[in-house]
Amino acid sequence: MKKSPESTGGQGRGNTVREQTHPLSHGRTLSIGVDPTSVDHIVVSSITGEMELSIELGPDGPKLRVRAVDIELVAAKRLSMRCESFLLQAERSAELLVDGPIRMRGEDVYLEAPAGELALTANDDVAIRGERILLNSDAPPMPSSSNELRSRADGKRGR
Questions:
Q1: What is the dihedral of CA 102, 107, 108, 109, to 10 degrees?
Q2: pLDDT tens, 2-19?
Q3: Three-state secondary structure call for residue 151
């Protein structure tokens, strides 16, 4: 195993940065870096030097990054993800296939098809429940008081 030379990242004994690099099969390399003043890391790089797998261990906790041709997660019972913000972005298409019910819930929920069709298909009834159902409408929001409702009605009569 090849070990890269140690470098000193600052004054004193506690600031020594240690980095080791090990060759892997298919031209990949494994790098392990220990930096007491910053972030420790484990990185697998491709033959071209591009990062494929990175684990950083810093003061805020671990950070995992994966760059791969395919990623498959398999859980026999349950796969849970919890985070502050979640973004799933696909360049071509995305599918969510479930053999049971699907529930989507949020403070507000928006479905948008800016360049195409939005189709709902059901074998049974389609139920849409809401305070108001607006179809092709730019109607103003619900009046907040009976006075506002009367004022709107009076405005329409005065036209």
A1: -10
A2: 344 444 444 444 567 899
A3: helix
Question: Beta strand pairing status for 40-45 and 51-58?
Answer: antiparallel
User: Strand ranges (DSSP E) for the chain?
Assistant: 7-8, 16-23, 29-34, 40-45, 51-58, 61-66
pLDDT of 152 above 60:
yes
- Per residue in 45-60, pLDDT (tens digit) is 999 999 999 999 999 8
> pTM for the complete prediction?
0.59
Token pair for 138: 């730019």
Q: Is 142's pLDDT higher than 80? A: no
d(CA 47, CA 70): 18
Q: What are the structural domain ranges in the chain?
A: 1-66
Query: For residue 17, what is the DSSP state?
Result: E
